[in-house]
Each structure stands twice: as C-alpha cells, then as structure tokens.
Design goal:
Blueprint: H1 3-21, H2 28-55, E1 58-59, E2 69-70, E3 73-74, H3 75-99, H4 111-130, H5 144-170, H6 172-195, E4 200-201, E5 210-211, E6 214-215, H7 216-236
Helix pairs in contact: 1-3, 2-3, 2-4, 2-7, 3-6, 3-7, 4-5, 5-7, 6-7
C-alpha cells in the first residue's frame, strides 16, 4: 500500500459514501463552512508538518509516495489535511442529521466566529514568521513530538475555547462524539499505514509508548486535530443550526 492508496481507501471512499447519504443536508452554507475550516487546517498544518519532517520527527519513504514534494512533505500529505477535515466534518454532519434539527437551517457568520478566524490567522502568521528563517531543531529529545504537537494545536484550541467557550460547552456533545469516532477511526487507519511503511517515526523523538504499533503521540494528534475541526464547525455554524431534535 502506498500513501495515495491509503488516501483513496480511508478518506476518499468514506467521503464519497457520506456525500451520497447526506446529499439532502448538504446546503451551500454548510459546504462553504467546511471549505473554510479545511483551508484554515491546510494552511496551519502545512508549516507545522514541514517542520516536523525537517526535524526528522516523522518521515515518508519516497517509494511510498508519488515523488512530488513541496518543501519537505509529499503532495499526499497536503491532500490529507483537506481530506481529514472533510471526512470529520461530514461525520459530524451525519451526527447532526440524526439528532439535531438541521432541515432548512443555514450556517451564518457571527461576531465570535469572525474573532476566532481573525485570531487563528494572527497565530498562523506569527507561526510562519517564526519559521521563516532556517529553524532550529527541538532540543527536548523523546518529548519533541509531544512538545511540537501541544505548542501548535494547543494554541488554536485555546483561541477557539477562550472566544467561543459558551457555544462550545453548550454543544459539547456535538464535538465529543464525532471527535471520539474519528480519533479511533484514524488511529486504526494509522496502524495500517505504519504497518505498510507509509510513514515512520524517530524513536529518539517520541516517548516510546504505543497502542499496538501506533505511538501515543499519533493518537493525541488525531484527537487534537479532530477537536479543532469539530469545534471550528460548531463555532462557525449558527446556533439555530445546532438545536437538538425534540423528543
């Protein structure tokens, strides 16, 4: 299995199935919101991922990729940023369709989401500026992956929670359930990709704890990125779109 095979099986296929199942709920506003969140995720993750590969925290064997690289990262990895966001967002919509009143409801901009978007952009600009010159490699040894993960994802999660905490808490189930489902799903998919040698990790820069063959850091990565996606979708959607169904 190559990286592109992984994407087709574990992201493109389920996305296609969900698009068919959810076609009556996919209005223009939801699609645009999902696109906005995916663009933010793509831009924010690109610099972070390139630094990790530059530092050797994880690597991609060239024979497992198409051989097309942008900086240090193969093109498939950039596609994954989009596809993970779309898949998680569609699973969240599936949950919405079962337990929430989303008929004829539309996402809409609000002041909180605009503030969060602006601050995420500012944080991203700062992150990119800080890595504009030849970056130094992290000095924390086996804690490098964890530090790199929490210093990046933690910043965006904190921004979202500080400015959208009331809406997040009010809709916490809509965040937790899809996040748990997709964290388990991507961790299992990750186990298969690791077993096929699509990517691997520097044991010197990870703490060594694993569930099966998946480093704990990877599970935390999927947990935090799925939190970012589901939180962002909740924050960018109008509250009326998120009302639970009446029993």
């Amino acid at each position: 299995m190559t990286y592109i095979d992984f994407l087709l099986v574990f992201t493109v296929l389920p996305i296609s199935i969900l698009l068919i199942l959810l076609r009556r709920f996919l209005n223009k506003q939801y699609i645009l919101t999902l696109l906005l969140v995916s663009v933010i995720a793509f831009v924010a993750t690109s610099a972070w991922d390139n630094y990790a590969v530059y530092s050797g925290i994880w690597m991609f064997p060239r024979e497992k990729t198409l051989g097309i690289y942008l900086y240090y990262v193969p093109i498939e990895e950039y596609l994954f940023f989009f596809l993970q966001t779309y898949l998680t967002g569609l699973v969240q919509l599936f949950y919405l369709s079962k337990f929430y009143n989303i008929e004829d409801k539309h996402p809409a901009k609000n002041s909180v989401s605009i503030k969060i978007f602006s601050l995420n952009v500012y944080a991203l600009i700062f992150y990119l500026y800080a890595n504009d010159t030849e970056p130094l490699k992290l000095p924390f040894g086996e804690w490098n992956y964890l530090f790199h993960l929490f210093s990046w994802a933690g910043t965006f999660i904190l921004i979202q929670f500080v400015f959208g905490r009331r809406k997040i808490i009010h809709n916490i189930k809509l965040i937790i359930v899809p996040t748990i489902i997709m964290t388990i799903y991507f961790s299992l998919a990750d186990s298969i990709s690791i077993g096929n040698g699509i990517w691997y990790f520097d044991p010197v820069q990870t703490i060594g704890a694993k569930i099966g063959n998946v480093p704990v850091e990877e599970i935390l990565f999927f947990l935090m990125t799925n939190i970012l996606i589901t939180e962002a979708m909740v924050l960018f959607l109008k509250q009326e779109f998120l009302l639970p169904k009446k029993k």
